[in-house]
Structures are given as C-alpha cells and as structure tokens.
Amino acid sequence: MSQRLSLRLTRLLNMVPYFVANPGITKSEAAAELGVTVAQLTTDLEQLWVCGLPGYGPGDLIDLSFEEETIEVTFSAGIDRPLRLTSTEATALLVALRALGELPGTADPTSVQGAIAKIESAAGVAAGGVVTRSAVESDPENPVVATVRAAVRHGRALDITYFSASRDAVTRRVVDPIRVVLVDNHSYLQAWCRQADGVRLFRYDRIDEATELDEAASVPASAYDDSSSLDLFQDDDTLPQARLLIAPDHAWVLDYYPMTDLVVRDDGSVEASMRFASPSWMARLMAGFGAGIRVLGPPELSESVRVRARAALAAYQQAIEG
C-alpha cells in the first residue's frame, strides 16, 4: 500500500469516532480540524458511506448525514473508538513531543506537556496501569519566547533587542515575523528585518527583549520564496575576514559563531572563514580559545592575538611569583 493510501485509510478509520464525538460539526470546521479541504472531506464522507461490516447490505454500512452543512453519524458499524497507538508508536510520539517541548518558540509548552501526560496515561492503562515516566508540569515559558511566538501566530510586527555574535553588538530593530524554523537544533525566528531590508534569522536565545506591536506584519511576497534566507549567516563583504584553523575538540564553536568556507582536514581539524566588525573583539575572542583555534590570517590579526597571549602569560607569571 502506498504511503498516500495508507494515510487516507488512517484518516477514514478515525473520522467515524471523530464525528460521533463531535455531533453536528460543520464541514468547514471538520476540514480545518482534520487538515484537509472541504472537497477532500466530502470525498472521504462519500467513501465512508459505502463502507461497513461484512455482508455489506444496507443495514451493515456506515450511515452518515452530510447533505447539509453539518455532519451526523446515524450508524457507526462498530467503529466508535479511534485507533490505538502501539507501544512503539506511543514511544516515538513521546520522544518527538519531549524534543519539541525543549525547543523554545516551536509550540506552547503547556499544550505539549498536556499531550505528553495524556499519552503517558493511556500507555499506562494499556500496560496494566504502569506509567514509565511521571507527568510533571512544564517550566514557565520564557516571556520573550512567548511574545515572539504570539507575534508569529497573530501576524504582527515585533520590536526586538538582539545580540549579533558576528558583530559583537546589541541592536534594536523592528521585524515582520514569517515563521519559526529549526536549524542545527536551535530555534530561530525567520523575519523580514526593516533595518537590513531583507529576510534574516534571529536565534531565540539571543533575543534579549521583544514587544509585539499593534500593527500587522508586512512581509514582501518575494521573501517567502527566498530559500537563501535560511542561511544562518549571510556574508557581508564589507567586513574584514579571518581564516581560522579549528582543532577537532573545538569544532563546537561552529554552532555558536557564523562561519563559512569550511574545509575538514584529514586529522579532523576544520579550516573556516569568519567575518568580524571589531578587530580588538576578534583578537580577544581568539586568544580566549588558546591552542584550540589558530588564526591563519590576516597577519595583523595573528599578531594581535600573539600580543594578547604574551601579555596574558606575563600577567600570570607575575601573579604566581608575587
């Protein structure tokens, strides 16, 4: 059976108990809840109308009333309970929900925790009352994250204060939210930045403050089709660029600083390029990594790092001698 047919069969088998539990629901409401169009819903109802128990006589078939705007089930043919999750399916769903709950801004943590509790309870009943993990209340959502998520949902502009790692600067800007995206296990707000006049990604844990404005988000139509906007760092050739050699045990820095032109050497070390706005900040940052990162160029940056390293060693020697 193809995946498409399998998904439709699963939907059909769950529709009867759904309509039994929601008598008189309208077609438009049901279509929105089930994630299909009204036309597809009507096709599914017509299919269900000729399904039923073996024998398939008029008295064995599922009977529904859907000629008007509302939907009623007059005979369920015994399909009055939704499909049950297998233990494997329940486990997979719980793992996915817990991962979702740990990513800020992707979903309401209260709703996620409620779903986890319900699935755990159902799994415990199926296993004889044993629940493998106690349901606990989720931690309160960060107010900044909640504000950003609400603005995305409401389609309103945001006034944010944001820390830019590449420029070592905190800026305030107005953005028009597009969506929440996940890149390399981090949550980002994808938005039209009015200051940059383009689409940018703003990492949630670097948004210091956020205020939902009383104005609708205004995103150019072309922004929705710009796949390059999902790049974590859009190279700015007006800034100086450093070429770095990153030791294998320091490869984690690639997740925290915007770098391009990556080349992995045979020993596991990585060559990478990084733009920077402040030479003194860049030298201070590189000196802090010690032998973990070596500056290959430009020469003036390499020399600045060496000067800082020598000064630090001299200060340390003076401290232990004094």
What do you see in this structure?
The protein is an alpha+beta fold and 322 residues long. The chain has four domains: 3-75, Arc Repressor Mutant, subunit A; 85-141, no CATH class; 149-228, SH3 type barrels (Roll), CATH 2.30.30; 241-321, Alpha-Beta Plaits. 36% of the residues lie in helices and 24% in strands. The chain is built from eight helices and eleven strands. It has a five-stranded antiparallel sheet, covered by helices on one side. Strands 9-10-8-11 form a four-stranded antiparallel sheet, covered by helices on one side. The protein has a two-stranded antiparallel ribbon with strand order 1-2. Helix 4 (87-101) runs antiparallel to helix 5 (109-126) and helix 7 (279-288) packs across helix 8 (299-321). The longest helix is centred in the last third of the chain and has 23 residues, at 299-321. The chain is elongated and about 95 Å long. The model is unreliable at 125-136 and 228-233 (pLDDT under 50).
List descriptors.
single chain; 322 residues; alpha+beta; Arc Repressor Mutant, subunit A; SH3 type barrels; four-stranded antiparallel beta sheet; 8 helices; 11 strands; elongated
- Give the total of beta strands: 11
Rg for CA atoms:
28 Å
Give the overall pLDDT as a whole number: 80
Q: What structural class is derived from the secondary structure elements?
A: alpha+beta
- Give the % helix: 25-40%
